[in-house]
Design goal:
The chain is of the alpha/beta class. About 45% of the residues are buried. It is built from 13 helices and twelve strands. The protein has an eight-stranded parallel β-sheet. Strands 5-4-7-8 form a four-stranded antiparallel β-sheet, with no helix packed on it.
Length: about 375
């Protein structure tokens, strides 16, 4: 699925002024349309963990009831039974895990999100979602399908040491037993992708490199330095999903310690990867983030939810870097709302490796103005993205 030349803005619903769906979400869609943006990118819509992270959710399928504008809206028995039948591959597991009232919240979410998504489409705005590679230890998916995961007593997930983390990152999620997944013809993943496609129009696959090879850390290790690479499922998982669901509208998050097999997998599948302007100035000549190395079938981000903001790195030059991102040959350019506002490091969404103070940034009411929409629209128009 090729990308048209276009502009998107990243803003998780928790960063709306009220932190949830409702009138402010519709107002943001109107602002996007006024800014010439055709994409709204969100972070995972699943329930967050105790630290607020949506990347370590207790469910890979359920949406978070904390996003609901009207959490007490009535749900008819017919709506509930229709939902449980339609989503039977996971709905009963979620009810057993989260409580008997949990399916009603999913009906409420589908009602609110479906109306918002339809309104966005009427304004020519589509939604980009985000699919974390791993699930939470002890979460619904882990407990419901223990046969699909490596025992926590054997190994856990992580990332190897790199320039930003000399000890690597010890995430601690359960690893997939890819042999067991293959014996089921990747049914769990196919069901997961189907669920995502019912909620968003395109989706980023987080830590895409883990499907080529993943970092396996022995249980009880003091740091991720003690891990090693193990082969992932490669193209087989995605081909199995596409045989049933059609071409997947994936954006491959190909960041981190990237080896040639990751790029080979991305290109064989035809998925666009990512370039990030935070890292575009410096490094070796083959630095993939440098503008001269950008590819048309690629998504350029000014910054991401895991990095500092543009202004936090470039100060007063932040808008100039934003304009350079829009001028990139990459078909799609994504600008976090913090970079539209030229906010500094205080507006970061997440600092990897830390547990407190993350996932809390929120817009002030009226902070995204008509003047800012006009400015972003002019920059997008000048770079052929409107």
């Amino acid at each position: 699925m090729r990308l048209d030349r276009s502009l998107g803005v990243q803003l998780h619903p928790t960063s709306l002024p009220g932190g949830r769906l409702g009138p402010e979400a519709y107002a943001f869609v109107d602002w996007l349309a006024a800014a010439g943006a055709r994409w709204w990118q969100v972070l995972p819509l699943n329930p967050p963990d105790e630290h607020g992270s949506p990347y370590a959710s207790p469910s890979a399928f359920a949406a978070w009831n904390g996003l609901l504008a009207d959490p007490d809206a009535p749900v008819a028995p017919s709506e509930l039974s229709a939902f449980r039948e339609r989503e039977r591959v996971w709905a009963d597991d979620w009810a057993s895990f989260a409580g008997a009232d949990a399916p009603a919240d999913q009906v409420r979410f589908e009602r609110e999100w479906g109306a918002l998504r339809a309104y966005a489409a009427s304004r020519d705005v589509r939604i980009i979602g985000d699919v974390p590679i791993y699930v939470a230890a002890g979460g619904c998916d882990h407990l419901a399908h223990p046969d699909l995961f490596v025992s926590l007593d054997e190994a856990v997930s992580g990332a190897p040491p790199d320039d930003l983390n000399e000890l690597g990152q010890l995430w601690g999620n359960p690893l997939y037993d890819w042999d067991a997944m293959e014996r089921t013809a990747y049914r769990w993943w196919i069901d997961r992708f189907r669920r995502v496609l019912g909620i968003v129009d395109r989706f980023r696959v987080d830590h895409f490199r883990g499907f080529a090879a993943y970092w396996r850390v022995p249980a009880g290790a003091e740091s991720a330095r003690q891990g090693r690479w193990s082969p992932g499922p490669g193209v087989r998982l995605f081909r199995a999903a596409e045989a049933e669901l059609g071409r997947l509208p994936v954006i491959a998050e190909d960041l981190g310690v990237i080896t040639p097999d990751v790029h080979a997998l991305r290109d064989e599948l035809g998925y666009p990867g990512m370039a990030v302007m935070i890292w575009a100035y410096g490094g070796t000549p083959d630095n993939p983030h440098r503008r001269e190395n950008h590819r048309e079938h690629q998504v350029v981000y000014t910054s991401t939810h895991d990095t500092d903001t543009l202004a936090g790195v470039f100060g007063d030059d932040a808008w100039r870097v934003l304009e350079q991102a829009l001028a990139s040959r990459c078909s799609l350019a994504i600008v976090p709302a913090q970079d539209v506002l030229a906010l500094g490091s205080e507006a970061r969404m997440n600092r990897p490796g830390t547990l407190v103070g993350n996932w809390q940034w929120r817009l002030e009411p009226g902070e995204l103005t008509t003047a800012q929409a006009r400015r972003l629209h002019a920059a997008a128009d000048a770079s052929g993205r409107t």
